[in-house]
Amino acid sequence: MAWGLGKQDELESAGDGRPDKRWQTRNRGKGAHVETIINEYISQELVRDPALLPLADDTPLLKSGILDSLSLLRLVIFVEERFGVTMGDDADLLSENFASVNTICARLRALEAAK
Q1: Which pTM was predicted?
Q2: Who's near 46: CB < 8 A, 6+ residues apart?
Q3: Going by fewer Cβ within 10 Å, which terminus of the chain is more open, N or C?
């Protein structure tokens, strides 16, 4: 997998909803798993109800209400910036691609393989 830490790690929160460095420092190095990175971002930036934590990789993000339209947009922006992919295709933005951490990572791997 070609995903490493990139310029996103140098960015600091500008108070605009973009991810800050609190969780990124935990994932330094090439050994960071995509599932861990996505799970930590969702858990720390998007989950509003602490009772939903810890978040399992197969937790239904849409059905449980963790992701709504705004948080889904924030997640797409994070994924694009963090992993250097573009999710602008209608096929990428289907709800089934965001059903869980596992499905998000499967879509990322498919996008990486298509490069």
Answers
A1: 0.74
A2: 66, 67, 71, 74, 75
A3: C
DSSP for 4-53? Answer: ---GGGG----SSS---STTGGGG-STT--HHHHHHHHIIIII---GGGP
- Residue 54 and residue 43: Cα distance in Å, rounded? 8
Cα–Cα distance measured from residue 58 to residue 96, given in angstroms and rounded to the nearest whole number? 13
What is the tens place of the pLDDT at every residue in 77-103?
999 999 999 988 888 899 999 999 999
Phi, psi dihedrals of residue 108, rounded to the nearest 5° = -60, -45
